[in-house]
């Protein structure tokens, strides 16, 4: 059966060509379609533990010694000189053991702590720079300096996506000026993250019920039916051209893009509309009001996107940069995201999605054990904590360690390259094989670095 | 100067001995007991690599970086108290360290003794001698064997069997390969397609129906003459430079802001944009064009006008991405040099030298030391990218740690947005700046005051950003308030020096000094650079000439790509070992030699390619040819191409009749001035929100303020003088309350109704979601749209606009759902469809005539039979709708269709 896509399209009646074709593509035409649609699901390099990713990006550098890295010696040595100067500052928050695993977590994350036995704390993170832009860029793209494809784009490039009515990589309300963190760089544009919603001030206004936060998602003056009839006409013109040209991948791409866009117009607002979620669910995420409302909605949306088959979703929670007012502001930042993240974990679990959904939490770096001013901490890239849950990682595990005060990783250091290698591995991708040829060189997310942390894989 | 030299001599001598000889027991004891503990306790917190901190670029945890010093200069000059800035700082002369208190006299005395005894310091890091793994032999071999390093020589034009098919030597080169492969080139395309190609390729706009008719007539008589005539006419149009200038702006990574986290505008970047456009329109010899961009400031000039142009040209080196939030001045400088080396070598030479910043080039014969030979040249150059200092100095906001001035133009050439300030305005601004300075001082003092630190920091950030804005406005006028004209660019630095290799590219890991020069594999003659000169002039003259084997080849390849759809070398910025080999090496050399011989005339080159037979053949698919050569490497057909973002937008405007072809002077960014860009807008959203909310009832304002968590910051009404501190509700504005009350709301008491609150909220939401940088209402050509990094107008962004942080010689050509959404729903597309429909409505004739005309305007041809009946069905299906609505939907459909978006 060697029907080319073109022949199939020629043989179906006008108006339903694409629909008919996409029905067929699951069967005989699958191979053909894989060569034309770059987002068609692709086989992983080896069986994947995780099918999708939710990345909770904590912008600004949350302090590890005040959240997930318990340092009793820091408390004991409070007020003494730190080894790199400054006075050591004990955490103003209380740590307790949680779950059967007894992981020590600070009380500002008391809700997340309820899922301690699902968490894999990586307490030995390292990156190259203690400055925000560089470290943030490195966390997303592996490099501090250049414009390179982001983790999500690499994942989409490697695996394709499962819902053909939605983009495969979504960044929810990213902060402004962060485009490169979800960008495709030199990968084909189709692999870049689709920005949904706005960050910062605007996010606080975002209303659950509308899809307005996706640009151009709705025609201001046509009904769906009118637009479908217009689209049918456009597609007729396009197919007429394709018929004349016989083979034209560009025109085929245009035809596909209109169908996906038209489906997105329905799918996106529907996905963004959380009004059909129960009050209990909204409450579980804290999406029903109060300081957790905004991030709760983001987390809820993340679950909805993931459930709908989106491969990679990123949600951002900002303003962790407490050089001053650490006690008050760190508590407030945590309060806004603790319940939403806990709700996300719980919801994924009860929908049996956590087992193959990798949830990642982390900021671009941690903070110094020594004080800055009376109640603040500086940036620290030499040792900090991120965590993962679900998606094939061991729960209730503490991996790696910083020194007694939390200055630098001393046990099983995990550089951001190792972190990337491990995430790709969990997705079934070999970070050394996942390459893209650009400007004459094969590029990788991990450049020439990266070791998979096999110890954390269940 | 003399003293400087002496101290330099001492410095060198002492550091040499210190490095060579171990310290005496006495020196060692003195350092360990008196100096090291103080450094650790008082300095390392902010100035050591272990703490990850190098405030002011200064690290004091090893001897080498202590001697090199930070942004301000050497911290320790052994034996010289006056030159040792560390001593200056601890004695609180010009600098004040530690910041909050003075060290005891005895400690200061210890440092005095230590410096005078030659600052013996056991914390020696040896200066590394980088040994390249690339040997002289490797370089010589590469130079003598690799194709791109051989001089292009004019090849013999090959003979062909079907000589009557050919028109120019280009056709001989192509046809001889086709004949060898026994593949015949396609037939000529239909005349309207050829004309559409010519118009989009040369001026980026579609042909008008009249032009199509005219061309058809000429073509029937003599196709060669018809093409020659049209090519000449198009080359003379001012739109030519707009089209080809934009191609150049892609590789020059042109943008009007710094990018990165703190996205500061470049309000004067547009001068470089216009310079590029004018250069292409003038057909400025390309070698000259290259030289001006690298070293226009150093080239001899005849008059001030030329000097002005040359200075603007060096904007090329200044418009790159900059991380102005970088703490460390030396890191910032090193990154800037790197950006300049990378851009310069890839844009002009198609060679990536920046790979060698950290190690030898992995593939090309470019040792790490070659990078630092160039780094010496660019490191001896100052880059001007910011805003000139005002009389108050270089005041910047809290996020801007790296500032810079601009170059004052020899000839005043105000942009339409340069404002004249009255004396009263200036006085007022000066007063405000002084007052803010006072308040900033107060806030600084309160910063470490427990309980007050939070609010102090907030006001510090707000005040410093307001003060910076005023200062920047004051800075660009003369004493009488008249605007002065500035440009971005470069100048030779006062301190010219060779650079040291940096081990792994890290700024604190110094290696040997490398003489300034050019990459060895690309030249046989290293330049002789005068000691006091950067060497940029020599570099410009070498790159902008046929003294290297690459510049001409790289440029003709790009021109070929833009006309033929793919480069002879497909990796347009990589002519190195890992790049693609040329598909037609002799043709490439032919074009390169011809280009140089023509006096580097880009227009001549374009004319030669566009009048070839190969340019006009059809893009028709042919199964057997396709199976033989699927990539069309032999050019048996024309490559179908998607219109790029600018051509698509301009074509919609041209067809709708709305296009304004006059060049707008300046740009939206120039109008906004020097500022930080956020959320796609050039005005401060807090200011806008404040203006909107001021008109609301105070009760609603309060509710909204809570909603957006802005109680303290942006939404507070003006804190003008006279307001008593401690009033927590802000200024009462009874007049507003009265006005609102009059509209019948008084019955609700003070509580805002739900509808009222929602309406207020929606108006602010709209304000926030508005992206003025999308410039949806603009009708000028796309090349003049504001290009702010990470905030590119959506009309360009969705259609694979060149990523302005990178050198882009070949754009992506994707088909994404966002493009489809844009064509279906975007306000600009709808506006233009309506305008197009109005244009048709104004013509005489039946609905069918108008439909015919719509196809001719968009596709360059009347509809086919199938299209005609599909259109009839579509228009019929709209039943009772007005004719104008039917036409508007038809027009939008044509814009959205593949044929309009592609060039066959």
TrEMBL record, chain A:
InterPro entries given for it? Alkaline_phosphatase_core_sf, DUF1501
SUPFAM superfamilies, alphabetically? Alkaline phosphatase-like
What name is this protein filed under? Sulfatase
Q: Which Pfam families match?
A: DUF1501 (PF07394)
Superkingdom field? Bacteria
Q: Where is this region: Disordered?
A: 205-226
UniProtKB/TrEMBL annotation, chain B:
Domain DUF1553, residue spans: 535-874
Coiled coil stretches, renumbered: 419-446
Q: Which domain of life does the UniProt lineage start with?
A: Bacteria
Q: Which residues form the Cytochrome C Planctomycete-type domain?
A: 43-100
**Disordered, as annotated region:** 705-755
Task: List the keywords (alphabetical).
Answer: Coiled coil, Signal
Residues annotated as signal peptide: 1-20
Residues in DUF1549 domain copies: 169-382
Q: Does the keyword Repressor apply?
A: no
* Listed name of the protein: Planctomycete cytochrome C
Name the lineage.
Answer: Bacteria, Pseudomonadati, Planctomycetota, Planctomycetia, Pirellulales
